[in-house]
Amino acid sequence: MKKRMLAVLFASMLACGVVGCGGNGTEGQQVEATTELAGEIKETADGMQAELQNYAADLTADAAAAAGLYTIENGAIVGGQENWDAFVAGEADAVIVCQFSKNGGAMLDYVKHLDGGSYLVVTDVTRDGYEYEEKQDYTQKVFECLTVLEGFSLEEGSTEHTVCVLSNEAEMDADTFRTYWNEMTMDAHQVYPLFVI
After folding, report:
1. What is the pLDDT of residues 105-141, one digit of tens each?
2. Which residues neighbour 40 within 8 Å (Cβ) at sequence distance 6 or greater?
3. For residue 3, which phi and psi values (nearest 5 degrees)?
4. Helix or strand or coil: residue 127?
5. Exposure winner among 51, 188, 193, 197, fewest CB in 10 A?
6. Which one, of 118, 122, 111, 44, lies nearest residue 80 by Cα?
7. 77: burial class by Cβ within 10 Å (0-12, 13-18, 19+)?
8. Which domain holds residue 62?
């Protein structure tokens, strides 16, 4: 959560569009996120985590972009756009999003399409340069929907951004996300801002 807050605070966060949701009858419902992964999904997540561990501890934006990661630094895309586009279009089954914290540390999210349309995300904050009491270096979660909010701002007249959100709400829109953000209830609603540009 703290990782995402840092990324979102980059930007002062109304049109929206749903990029993808699972096709398993969850439309209009909130579904509890899988916090304890099991079986094949857990094995897949562990494999993804092992792949993330192969990136350098001092990963730079240039190196991340050269490796094909969808790389975002200082709120701007610096590489990997074609890989993100292929993932969103369903032409690639996975993508790694690399963002940089305000102190220059890399934060990685490995996102994979699962059968049935949901998304497995493994987050790696081992390089972000922050230490805090409840920090988890790696997290593994499954979400039902990926939503892109174009022209999103937290307040009328403030700077607009593109926000990509993973959630379990098929009807996620800008107003709902804005409410969760302002109330600081994203964890409670199992909403994960993947990136802000």
Report:
1. 999 999 999 988 999 999 999 998 887 777 789 999 9
2. none
3. -60, -45
4. strand
5. 188
6. 111
7. middle
8. 2-196
